[in-house]
Amino acid sequence: MKKGLFPLLIAAAMLSACGTAPAEETVTAAETTTTAETEVTYAKLEYEIDPSKPVVALTFDDGPNTTTTAQVLDKLELYGVPASFFLIGNNINDASAEVVKRAYQMGCEIDNHSKSHAYMNQMEADAIIEEVMYVSDKVEEITGEPTKFFRPPYIATNTTMYDNIDMPFICGVGCNDWDNMVTVQQRIDNTLNQVQDGTIILLHDAQGNIKTVEALDTIIPALLDEGYQFVTVSELFESKGVEISADDSNLYTIIQ
Ligand SMILES: [Zn+2]
Questions:
Q1: What are the pLDDT digits (tens) for 7-55?
Q2: What is the CATH number of the domain that holds 57?
Q3: pLDDT per residue over 77-99, tens digit each?
Q4: What is the reported pTM?
Q5: How far away, in angstroms, is 62 Cα from ligand 1 center?
Q6: Distance from the alpha carbon of residue 87 to the mean position of ligand 1, in angstroms
Q7: How far apart are CA 188 and CA 205, in angstroms?
Q8: CA of 113 to the centre of ligand 1 (A)
Q9: Domain for residue 201, yes or no?
Q10: Which residues carry out catalysis?
């Protein structure tokens, strides 16, 4: 098992300060604002996939935000493993978009969890399309790529959704970590007890979900010790040689 290299955070700050102070007598409406442009780039996680060894995909729903999502990324960076993030469109703003950019630059996959996180099995086709296209377009603005996979809110699906969403539907094995009553140890035990080769692990990086951040400190090392390789959802399908189709009506949890 080759562990990923610990990535380096490369902060390339390009500051440009230009312009001269206006002469005192001209201090009127024509005030010049100097903007410092800061470009930060993040090192891509380095890892290799050995097809003869078991694989697992960590996935996180309900972000992005600048707190918990960032803490999850810190853990991924620490252990050198990627994950896939299923975003809620309404959580994307200028600040959280920076966190999405960081995840993408690290090599994480950015996926789709709808705009408003409503029960989409109660929506008309037009509204369903609007929900997913909003997120895909926002993500494309940030990363340059549309979203590849869709996780239905509350895992509620129907044929209208399958007919109108051009992405494979992803579920996964969960540990009810959206419920704050579920302890860190329960999150760890429920996750580790369910994982097998090809499993999609369903967790949440909703704002304040610190117990899941803490659980990662046990879940990731335990699975690495067992020889699991962490991959994105796309890489999981690739490594198993499973062709994905936007037209199927599957709800994927374990890829074999
Ligand atoms: Zn959700």
A1: 333 333 333 333 333 334 444 444 444 455 567 888 898 888 888 899 9
A2: 3.20.20.370
A3: 999 999 999 999 999 999 999 99
A4: 0.85
A5: 5
A6: 9
A7: 15
A8: 7
A9: yes
A10: 61, 204
